[in-house]
Sequence to fold (366 residues):
Amino acid sequence: MKKLFTLVLLSGTYLLQAQNVGVATAYPNNGKIVIKNTGSLSGLVVGDSTSGISFNEPGFATIGFNNYYRIGRKQMADGFASYFYFNSVNGTLYYNNTAVTGTQGTAPSLTNRFSINKDGEVGVGILEALAGLHVRGKSVLIDNTSGFGDVTLTATTSTIGGLIELRNNTNIRTVAMRAGDGSGVSGELIFYDNTGSVSSLELDGDYSATGRSRIIVDELQIKGGADFAEYFDVAASGETTPLAGMLVCIDPNNSGKLVVSHTPYDKKIAGVISGANGVKPGMMMGHKGTVADGEQPVAITGRVYVMAEALHNAIEPGDLLTTSAIAGHAMKAASYKKAQGAVVGKAMSKLPAGTKGMVLVLLGIQ
Fold:
């Protein structure tokens, strides 16, 4: 049968039932080793006057490195002092540190570096995180196995705001996305050449604080359309509603607007409503809120399908086309004299005599 007894040592250490060890307590019932914190001392200090780790300081649960508590948090030696402490009221774990030289025994002014709250939100450089990951005044670096920073999220000046940079496998900056450019108030996306210093493409939401966006590029390739169009308001011609593929002319009664064509060899020819037969415009222009705006994209150059009639003359590739008496339709320009100034372009497909249909046209108003 095991005998139970309590041994009291002069040092204030107690042995209960020859199993549990108590320091500064006669009743170490809550663990194998129980250290009672008294006054303003650390519960446990491992180390000496030059360095060490302290545990269970008064207040919230704390682990300190190179510091201990005696009438305030004090540094044991030159260098860095830091501690973790858990706030049982708000459920947040904090990490603080500082660097102090020549002031051993004084209370260092520790700065919060890291925290995790009860909801699992992580704060870097901030006491209370407001998001899953909340970083204040710090940059975020994601590097690859070569040690190059593939992605950098940089805390910048207030005139630029947030900055994200991407780098290639030789550590050259290739893409940057900024919240501002220092003069404008909107964001911009910049692509760089192989030096990482000269921009090759810029998308600026507020170019030079003009209030206007701008794309700056050396070469532009359009893959989703075949004509250049401008937006216009187009009026009907009689009962003919404007549709894609119809020829349109300048409306003499409404400045800046167009009307569906209805007169042969009309010198007021302006273009073709884009989008017929699935061939879409590749670029569209317009200025909202001004006379240079409208509802219909009217192609003025490029390739576009046009409504045409060959009731009197068949249309062959290479024929010049002009306006017809049929609203919105093109026809072969049989009279070169009348066609001067009334040509919409050249046919690129044929239309048999006596029929109506769509003709592919290479636009060239002349």
About this structure: The CA atoms of residues 146 and 223 lie 37 Å apart. Helices lie at 336-339.
